[in-house]
Amino acid sequence: GPHKEGCTYTALSEVAKALNNEGIETEIFWVGVKPISGCIACYKCFENGKCVFNDVVNEFAEKAKEADGFIFGTPVHYAAASGALTSFMDRLFYSTFSNPEIFRLKPAAAVISARRAGTTATFEQINKYFTMTQMPVISSRYWNMVHGASPDDVRKDEEGMQIMRILGKNMAYYL
Hints:
Blueprint: H1 7-21, H2 44-48, H3 56-64, E1 70-75, H4 83-95, E2 108-114, H5 119-132, E3 145-147, H6 151-156, H7 158-174
Parallel strand pairs: 1-2, 2-3
Helix pairs in contact: 1-7, 3-4
């Protein structure tokens, strides 16, 4: 999300706490607020093993090589993932076709944050990246989403926070 410690971060932090309680080390990687170009289909990633734009996408791809699992979070913007995350995911997952082992068979989950609506469409959008890359999709007891216009609102979303904790426990089980 555009706010470093906003609603999406609040949800991801709850998942991270649950993972930490299960003995799993976590890192929250913030994409930031600098513009992220979408994929331009130049295919240089197939030659170079990384995206031609040397930015946060390549930085994350290097970290991803060492990670055992992933949880990607996004706020809802117009019933879809944020533009920044969409560009990030498009380039990240396309460029890893040249090195599919970065993500293949590593468990993944999507966490969606919204004031009110658009969460299920966004949840479906993000999960498609995982299934295209042979990643097991980890679930909770309900869709992995929280609701609120501020971090305090999200913390008051008792059901959403419970879903985040269960997601963390479920991810720990697979890891």
